[in-house]
Amino acid sequence: MLTGVFSYVKLVITGNITMFGILGSISEAGRIKMGNPATQFCWDVRLTEGLLGERAQAVRDKVIPYQWRALNDSIPGAAPSHAIENLRIAAGEKDGQHRGWVFQDSDLAKWLEAVSYSLMAESNPEWEAHADEVIGLLGRAQQRDGYLNSYYTITGLERRWTNLRDHHELYCAGHLIEAAVAYYQATGKDQLLQIVCRMVDHIGEVFGPGEGQKRGYPGHEEIELALLKLYRVTNNPAHLKLAEFFIEERGKQPHYFDAEAKARGEDPAAYRFDYSYSQSHLPVREQDTVEGHAVRAMYLLAAVAELALEKDDPELVQVCERLWHNTVQRRMYITGGIGSQDYHEGFTIDYDLPNDTAYAETCAAIGLVFFAQRMLALAPKAEYADVMERALYNGVLSGMSMEGTKFFYVNPLAVDPKVCAARHDLRHVNPVRQEWFGCACCPPNIARLLASIHSYIYSAGGAELFVHLYAGSTATIQLSSGQVEVVQKTEYPWDGTVQFTLNMQRAQEFSLNLRIPGWCTQHRVKVGDEELSSLEVHDGYLRLKRVWAPGDTVTLTLFMPVERVWANPQVEENVGKVALQRGPIVYCFEEVDNGPHLAALFIPRESEFQVEEDPSLGLPVLVGTGLRRQGTESLYTTTGPQDEAVPVTAVPYFAWNNRQPGEMRVWINEQ
Amino acid sequence: MLTGVFSYVKLVITGNITMFGILGSISEAGRIKMGNPATQFCWDVRLTEGLLGERAQAVRDKVIPYQWRALNDSIPGAAPSHAIENLRIAAGEKDGQHRGWVFQDSDLAKWLEAVSYSLMAESNPEWEAHADEVIGLLGRAQQRDGYLNSYYTITGLERRWTNLRDHHELYCAGHLIEAAVAYYQATGKDQLLQIVCRMVDHIGEVFGPGEGQKRGYPGHEEIELALLKLYRVTNNPAHLKLAEFFIEERGKQPHYFDAEAKARGEDPAAYRFDYSYSQSHLPVREQDTVEGHAVRAMYLLAAVAELALEKDDPELVQVCERLWHNTVQRRMYITGGIGSQDYHEGFTIDYDLPNDTAYAETCAAIGLVFFAQRMLALAPKAEYADVMERALYNGVLSGMSMEGTKFFYVNPLAVDPKVCAARHDLRHVNPVRQEWFGCACCPPNIARLLASIHSYIYSAGGAELFVHLYAGSTATIQLSSGQVEVVQKTEYPWDGTVQFTLNMQRAQEFSLNLRIPGWCTQHRVKVGDEELSSLEVHDGYLRLKRVWAPGDTVTLTLFMPVERVWANPQVEENVGKVALQRGPIVYCFEEVDNGPHLAALFIPRESEFQVEEDPSLGLPVLVGTGLRRQGTESLYTTTGPQDEAVPVTAVPYFAWNNRQPGEMRVWINEQ
Question: What is the pTM for the complete model shown?
Fold first, then answer.
C-alpha cells in the first residue's frame, strides 16, 4: 500500500507498547537539544482508577457510540450531522447536496481520533470496523491529486482554496491528519496515514513561498499542530516545513485574506471581524497579547510552541512565553476557561472576565490544555502543568455531563436560567447541557482529549521522568537508563496521597520529578518508609534523583485543604468575591443545594468548610456556613441590610447541572 | 382661520397667564371626579434660580439653537438630519429622496415643542419666526385629506398606513400634535393646531372600530397621550375617543400586526421581536408586568393613566398602579433609568438590572417622568413624585452635558471606556456624550422636557395646592378660593430649605400640601416664625390647611444627610454594593477624582462623607475615606487581599463625564 508520495518510515508494529517506544525514538534525538530539559510525553499509560479514568471510560461507553449514530444521522430528534452522507456524496456513491457546516468533515475526523485513543485503552472490533469503513470512504472521496474535502468536492472544486479566511479547508485537513496519526498509533494501520500524506503533498504543492504557490494560511488554525504531529511520525521534512510556512506566513503584509477577498470580488473591509479574530493581525513573532477567537489562538500557540522546540528557536520560545503569560495571567477564568465574549468567541482585553456573559468554550479550554502540554515539553515548569490541570479538571470536564451524554458548548461561571431566557446578551448561554449541537465541535473534541488523557501524565527525556498529573495508572516508560513501569495508586483529585511503585528488571539511576502543584502549600514525600526532608522544589518539581531498585515505592502527600481564591482586583466583577478550590478542583454553588438567589449569599472570611461525600452527586462537596442577605419589599432602601446564617454547599464546578437545572455561581460575595 | 374640521373652542388670548388660567378651566370640571383628589398641573410658573432653572436656561441658550442648525443640516461634521429638507421635498418645493429615519419628522416636532415651552419663559422673535416658517412648511406638506408625513408623501402615499408596526406614522403624528398644543399654549397662534386637527380628523377616519376602518394602532405609542393633550385644548370628544380606541384596541386578537404583515406579503413570524416589544402582546388591561421597549411602554402608560382619569375608570387605574409598581419596584435603576438591555431597548425581567450593559435610554427616563406626572394627577401620592424627581435629577439630567451641548443616549451605571471599546455587548454604550445622534430622539426630547419642567412643580384642584418639586420659582395658581402667587426660594436640590411666600389680593382658605420626599427622614416646618409640630404626613404630603393671609411665609426644612442606599438583594449585581444619595441626587464615582479601577474601591459601612463644593464641577460633591484593594501580579491568589485607606470623592451622577473621559460607577463595593 505504500506509494511514492508516501515518505514516512514504515515501522514494524508488534503491539502498542513497542510501537510507541519506537515512535518515540524516531524523533527523540531531535527533541533534547534546547537548554531546557525538553521531554516527550509518554503514551503507553493505562488509567486504572479515579476521575480521569472514569471520564475516559464514559467517552468509550457513551460518547463514541452516540457520536457514531450522530455522524450517521440516526438520532431521532437531533439535528442531522450529514458528515458521513456528505462524504458518500463526495465519493460519488450517492446523489445530493452538501449539508451542514463547511467544516462538517472535522467532526468525523475528531470521532476517528477519539476512537483511536480509545482503542489504545481497550480493543473494540466494532468501532475498528466502523473506523475502517469510514477510512475507506475517505479514500474514495479523495481526489486524484490528493485533495480531500467534502464541501468543495460537492459544491465545486474550481472554488477550492479561494476562501481560507472563512471556509476551514485547512482546518478540516488538520483534523484528518490528527486522526490519521492517532489511528496509526493505535492500530498500526496506515491507510488513513497514506491518505493524509497524499493530501498534505497536494497542500504542499498549492501553498508555499515558491512561484505559483499561494502564500495563504488557514483562517482557523489546526493544520499547523497536525503537521507537526505528522512530522513526528513520518520524519518527512516537508511536513515540518509546511507547518513552519503556515505559522510564519500568518499576518504578513500585504495581507493574504485581503488579496483573497478581492480575488473573490469582495471588499475586504466588509469583513465583520478584524484579522485579530484569526490571530493574523500581525506575524505571530510580533504579537504581545493573545487575541481573537480563543480556540484558534490556542491551536496556533500549541503549534508555535512545538515549532519552537523543533526548530530550537529562542525567539519563538519567547513569543510563546509572552503569549502564555498574557493568556493565563490576564485573560483566563479560574476554571481555565478562556474567551470572554460571545461575539467573536474570544478574548477581549486584560482582566475583562465577566462571569455570566463568558464564552469559555469547551474547545478553548481543550486548546489551552494543548498549549500547556507543548509549553511543558519546551520546559517542565509546574506553572504550565498547573494551568493544564486547572483547565482539564474544570473548564474541560464541565463540558460533559457525568453520564457522558450531554455537553456544554459555553461554560460561564455564573448562570441564572431565568436571566438567560430573558437577556439577548446571554443567548449563547444554555443553562443545561445539550445532547448535540448544530455546530458540534465541542463534544467530539472533549471525547478526543479525554480518550487521550493518559498521554498527559508523564513526560520523559534522557534519565529524567516528570510526573505532571496524578491519576491511578500503569505506565511503561523508556528512559536512557532503561524501561520502567510506573504504577500510580491515588484517589486524586479528591485525595492528595499518591503512591508510586517503580517496577524494573534491574536497578536504574534516574530522576523522578514530582510536580508540586501551585495550589499546594504543604507536601510530604516518603521513599519506602523513609520520609525525605529539605527537598528542593525546582520550577515546581521535586526532583528525586537516585538509583532506584525494582519495586521501590514513593509516597507523595499533597495537603489539600479547602482554599479561598481571590482574583486580581482588576477583574472588576470579582472584587469583593471569593471562590473555593480544593486541590485542582474549583467549586461552585448550585441552586439545588443552596436555594435560589445565589447572588445574595455571602461567605465570611473566617468561616470553615468541611469535605463531605454527597450522595446525589457521588463526589466530595464542601459544606459550611454562609450568610444570606435578607430580602426587602422595596427595590431600594436606606435601611442597612440584614444577613442570616445559612448552611451552604459547594460542588465541583465540572459537576454542576447534573442533578436539576438552576442557578450556579463560582464567585460568591465575601464578608 | 377656523374651519369646519376644527372644533376646539377658540379662546381670547390676552397673555400667557390668562390663557393658562382659561385653558385650565376648560377641562377642570371634568377632572375632579374620582375618589382621589385629582389635580391639574400648573403651567404659569417661572423658574427663577437653581438647578432646574439653569438646565432650562441651557436648553434655551444651547440646545434649541444647535438643534435648529442640526434640523437644517448645517452643522459641519455632524450626520445631517434631513428633517426640514424632507418636508420641503414632501411639499413639492424641492426634488429629492427622503433621507434619514422614517420618523425623522418627529425630531422637528420635538424641537417645535421645546421652542414653545421656552417662549413661555422668555420671548424670542427669532425662534418664533423659525417656528412659524416650519409650521408654514408643515401646512404645505400636508395632503388635502389631512395626511401629514414626509416619509410616505415622498416614497409613495399608496403605501401609507400599511406598516404601523415599524414605520412610526402615528408616532410622528403624535409629536406634531404635542408641538401644536404647546405652540398654541405658548403663543396663542393656532395654525399648527389647525393642521394637526385636520390630520387627526383624517386619522380618525382611517382608524376605528367602524366598518371599513382599520383596527390598527401605533407600533410606537405616542399619539395616545398627544390626543389626550389635544382633547384638553379642543374639548372635542372625537379626540378623546380616538385616544381611547388606540389604547383599548392594542393587543387584541386577531392581532392587527399579524394581519398587516400578511397584507404586505410578509410572514408575521419573521418579525425579530415578539409583540411585547410594543406592549401589544396583550390588551393593556390584562398586562401584569411592564414589558418591551421602555420608551414605548412609558408613553403608553402615561396615556393610560390620563385616560383612566378622563374616563373615571377604576379598572384602568388598577392597571396603572400594577404596572407602575412593577416598573418602579422591580425594573428601575436607582437613577430612574429604565430598560435593562440594548437588544430591544427595554425591560427584561424583575430585578434584572445590570449596571454596565444597561440601556436606560434618556428618553425612557423622560417617559417615566410623563407616567409619574399622570399618576400624580390621578392621586397625589409622594411615591409618584419621588420617582418623578429621581428620574428627573438623575436619569434625565445625565442625558445632557452641563454646557447643554452634548448628550447621552444610554445611561449605564458603570462605565469603563476600555471595556466599552473591547466588548460587543457594550457597543451601545458611548463612554462620552455626543453632539448629535443618527437616531436623534433623545436630545430634542430632553430639550422639550427641561423647557417645560416648570409645569411639573405644582398641581392644584379645588382648594388643594400640591407642591411636588422644590425649585426657585414664581407661580400664579388658580384655586377655588382665588388666585395665589407662590414664590419659592431655595437652593434645592443642594440644600433642603425651601421658603414659600404666598402673595394674594386677600386672605384665602386653602390647603398647601408639601411633599415630604421618600428620601427624607426628618423635616421641619415653620409658618412665619411659628414652628409646627406633630403634623401628619398623608401619602407623603404634609397638609397645611388654613386661612392664609397675603404675604404669609412657610419655611420647609428637609434634612439632607448623605444616605447609603442598598438594592434589593434580588438585584444580583448590587449585592454587597452600596450607592450614595443626598436629597434626590444619586452620586457616582469618577476616574478623574478617584483614579482608575473604580471596581477595586470599597466603602466601609461606618465611614462618613462630607459635602464640599467642587471647583472643577461647580457642584456639591461628597468627600470621604474609602478603601482600595491592592493589586497583585497573579491573576488568582490564595493570599487574602489587602486594602488601603484612600480619599474618595463622589459627584452627582447627572454631572459625570463633564471634565474628562474615564470610568464611572454608581454602585461601590461595601465593607
Answer: 0.93
